[in-house]
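Hi U.,

Before I forget, here's the chain from the pilot set. I'm dumping it here mostly so it's searchable later in email.
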Amino acid sequence: MKKGKRNSKIMLGLLIAVLTLGIGYAAISGVTLLINGSATATASGTDADFNVHFDDFVQGTNYIAYTETAGTGDSLTQTFDTVKHISAASGETTKQADITVANDQKNATVSVSNMTNVGDTVNLTIPVINESDGIKADLSASVVNNNEEYFNVTAAPGTETLNGNNAKSSVTVTVSVIKVPKVEDKTGTFTVTLTADPTE
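Structure:
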């Protein structure tokens, strides 16, 4: 009889142990674990470290190209004036074109004058440099056309993304004659603005 009581006590103990483990597991498995936190990667550069702008003109490089529709062989001869100013003129007519980069090197003024035929086109190239230390730049360019009746003007960067560390590109401004004046000569003067945004 004593042996049966002992076995009953052992069985009862085991049953209590199993119930305790089950209740404990249920209590633990019902707990929702929350992990809250945030991480921030701080930029190491400042606005002063991002330096993208129109570059200096280099003597001996051709920045102004002229295409005429009449086929008379007229051309523009380029003159290097300063690192901020390039001009070109015809030796046979009064046709002229020039580029002047502003002191802030973010804007440039482009002009063409005395074009004689619809379709005559001048391509003016302005160099661009990214002097940022390892920071790439997304480039875009805009142009203000003060004489839309006579000229069509576009501005396009040579590359959309320019590497840092003195990588170079350019903005090409294309000016086309869409109407020839009947009475007086028309000069087109256009403001080109370079926009650069830092990118990874």
